[in-house]
């Protein structure tokens, strides 16, 4: 996924820059909650983020890339209070909506990053420190000429692997068959990762009951597409 505003230091970045107007509620969430819950990747000081200080406690850090409008993310954070849950997203209204959902659910273990996940991982996350990374339903770029824009490429997977702690997981989900196959191929070729479900049919992970059904999955089901989960872990 590409963004013309980012310096070309890498072949793939994690998003396409999107606009969008915020609702009154989303704007209120930004004004009330962002100073405490959010940071902008491009404005971070050099070096790794001190997640322990930011959350006010030491706990395993889970990074979700692309939280969208936050429905799934808020539920996942609420269901895992033992995690320091970090969501990185570029869509302003989506972050506003996530803060509203978190407020409604009483979530206290969630922090938000606005910006490019690749920059965050490269410059502001120490190697070997994440307990997990989640990438649910990234842009599929279904046209063949656009496949190079997909975020799951060898360089990106190597970056993820380097930031995971031993035993940490990289969990992906997509409803596009070809993209799922690409994810499987690229991650299987990364020597630092192993497929936790390599012995399962096709190498796919069983769909976790704890992962909420997203609007993308609902649409895929209506359109006859099957969603696949993949879970790789750091060796």
UniProtKB/TrEMBL annotation:
Catalytic reactions on record: guanosine(46) in tRNA + S-adenosyl-L-methionine = N(7)-methylguanosine(46) in tRNA + S-adenosyl-L-homocysteine
PROSITE patterns, sorted: SAM_MT_TRMB
A cellular component term, taken from the record's GO annotations: tRNA methyltransferase complex
Single Gene Ontology MF annotation: tRNA (guanine(46)-N7)-methyltransferase activity
Signal peptide: none
Binding site for S-adenosyl-L-methionine: 64, 89, 116, 139
Key word Transferase present: yes
Enzyme Commission designation: 2.1.1.33
InterPro entries in the cross-refs: SAM-dependent_MTases_sf (IPR029063), tRNA_(Gua-N-7)_MeTrfase_Trmb (IPR003358), tRNA_methyltr_TrmB_bact (IPR055361)
Keyword entries, A-Z: Methyltransferase, S-adenosyl-L-methionine, Transferase, tRNA processing
Residues reported to bind substrate: 143, 175, 214-217
Pathway: tRNA modification; N(7)-methylguanine-tRNA biosynthesis
Biological role stated in the UniProt entry: Catalyzes the formation of N(7)-methylguanine at position 46 (m7G46) in tRNA.
Homology family: Belongs to the class I-like SAM-binding methyltransferase superfamily. TrmB family.
Record's protein name: tRNA (guanine-N(7)-)-methyltransferase
């Amino acid at each position: 996924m590409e963004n013309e505003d980012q310096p070309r230091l890498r072949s793939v970045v994690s998003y396409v820059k999107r606009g969008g107007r915020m609702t009154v509620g989303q704007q209120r969430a930004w004004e009330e909650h962002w100073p405490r819950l959010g940071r902008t990747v491009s404005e971070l000081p050099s070096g790794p983020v001190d997640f322990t200080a930011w959350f006010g406690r030491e706990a395993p850090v889970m990074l979700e890339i692309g939280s969208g409008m936050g429905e799934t993310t808020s539920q996942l954070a609420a269901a895992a209070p033992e995690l320091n849950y970090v969501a990185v997203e570029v869509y302003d209204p989506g972050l506003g909506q996530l803060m509203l959902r978190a407020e409604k659910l009483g979530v206290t273990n969630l922090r938000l990053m606005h910006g490019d996940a690749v920059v965050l991982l490269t410059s502001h996350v120490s190697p070997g420190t994440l307990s997990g990374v989640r990438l649910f339903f990234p842009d599929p770029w279904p046209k063949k000429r656009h496949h190079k824009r997909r975020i799951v490429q060898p360089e990106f997977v190597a970056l993820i692997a380097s930031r995971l702690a031993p035993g940490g997981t990289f969990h992906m989900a997509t409803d596009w068959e070809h993209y799922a196959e690409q994810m499987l191929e690229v991650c299987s070729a990364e020597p630092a990762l192993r497929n936790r479900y390599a012995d399962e049919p096709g190498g796919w992970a069983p769909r976790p009951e704890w992962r909420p059904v997203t609007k993308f999955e609902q649409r895929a089901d209506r359109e006859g597409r099957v969603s696949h989960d993949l879970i790789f872990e750091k060796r």
